[in-house]
């Protein structure tokens, strides 16, 4: 779903860029050669303005960080609004129509594609593969239900189990069963690297979504995916909360 929304949003941004350029051409024809082209201009604007409507929806579907993505995806609305105001002031004869309108349209045409790419590529959250940076997709184990804490992590990046003594105790037991042989009782590393301090291999391991993604999907070599070994996402989140207590 997220991958499809990402693809659609990029396609739509590209389409909008082309539509804006076509608008330039048509308006140019109208003012330079044949005033009848204004009718085409109105039809064209009336059609392509609707392309901006799905943008925020698609941005939301792509997933966290949603406030960032959706805000950015609303940029074309602001641009359309500004153009309407300028165009109508111009038609009323209150403002000269040319300069401001052209400036807005040029900026919009130049920015719509980069904005689309930013909306889709934004990686404020660290839900990504440590190896190639590709976005994570999480699948539940058979019979697993997504707990509120896991749901919240995916929405906001916050780990509710931090500072929760019961969850941390459960995380400790899981760590001892699954991680201690390679990462050591103090988390400073044995066969595997340290999980505490600043000497991390992957910058994303500093954040809870980032460490969660590494446990879920694995990294290179001996660091295998724990999702593939049947571990539940809620357990991974508790382990992260425990590992953070080692980091003093
Ligand atoms: C068989 C050994 C092994 C086990 C078991 C293991 N790891 Fe790892 N882990 C590694 C290795 C090796 C790496 C380095 C991977 C790399 O360089 O891509 C690693 C890397 C990591 C990293 C990234 C650290 C960094 O510096 O960026 C995290 C986080 C991590 N492991 C967490 C865990 C957790 C939590 C568990 C238990 C659920 C676990 N690992 C179990 C071997 C292991």
Write up what this structure looks like:
There is one protein chain. The chain contains eleven helices and no strands. By secondary structure, it is mostly helical. It folds into two domains: 2-121; 148-246, Cytochrome Bc1 Complex, Chain D, domain 2 (Orthogonal Bundle). Helix 1 (2-32) runs antiparallel to helix 2 (37-48) and helix 4 (66-73) packs antiparallel against helix 6. 26% of the residues are buried. The structure holds heme C. Heme C (HEC) binds next to helix 9 and helix 10.
Q: Level of helix content?
A: 55-70%
Number of helical runs? Answer: 11
Total strand segments = 0
Query: Tell me about the biggest sheet?
Result: none
Tally of domains: 2
Class by SSE composition: mainly alpha
**H/E topology pattern:** HHHHHHHHHHH
Structure ligands: heme C
The shape, in one word, is elongated
């Amino acid at each position: 779903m997220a991958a499809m929304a990402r693809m659609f949003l990029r396609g739509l941004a590209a389409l909008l860029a082309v539509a804006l350029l076509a608008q330039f051409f048509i308006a140019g024809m109208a003012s330079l050669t044949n005033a009848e082209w204004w009718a085409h201009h109105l039809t064209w604007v009336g059609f392509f303005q609707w392309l901006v409507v799905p943008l925020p929806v698609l941005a939301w579907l792509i997933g966290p960080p949603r406030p960032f993505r959706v805000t950015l995806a609303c940029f074309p609305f602001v641009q359309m609004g500004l153009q309407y105001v300028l165009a109508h002031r111009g038609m009323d004869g209150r403002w000269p129509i040319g300069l401001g309108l052209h400036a807005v349209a040029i900026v919009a045409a130049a920015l719509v594609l980069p904005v689309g790419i930013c909306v889709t590529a934004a990686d404020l959250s660290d839900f990504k593969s440590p190896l190639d940076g590709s976005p994570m997709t999480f699948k539940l184990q058979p019979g697993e239900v997504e707990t509120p804490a896991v749901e919240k992590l995916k929405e906001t990046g916050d780990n509710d189990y931090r500072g929760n003594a019961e969850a941390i105790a459960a995380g400790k037991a899981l760590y001892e069963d699954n991680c201690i042989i390679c990462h050591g009782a103090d988390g400073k590393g044995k066969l595997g690297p340290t999980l505490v301090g600043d000497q991390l291999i992957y910058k994303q391991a500093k954040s809870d979504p980032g460490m969660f993604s590494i446990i879920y999907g694995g990294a290179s070599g001996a660091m295998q995916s724990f999702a593939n070994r049947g571990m539940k996402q809620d357990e991974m989140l508790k382990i992260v909360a425990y590992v953070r207590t080692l980091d003093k």
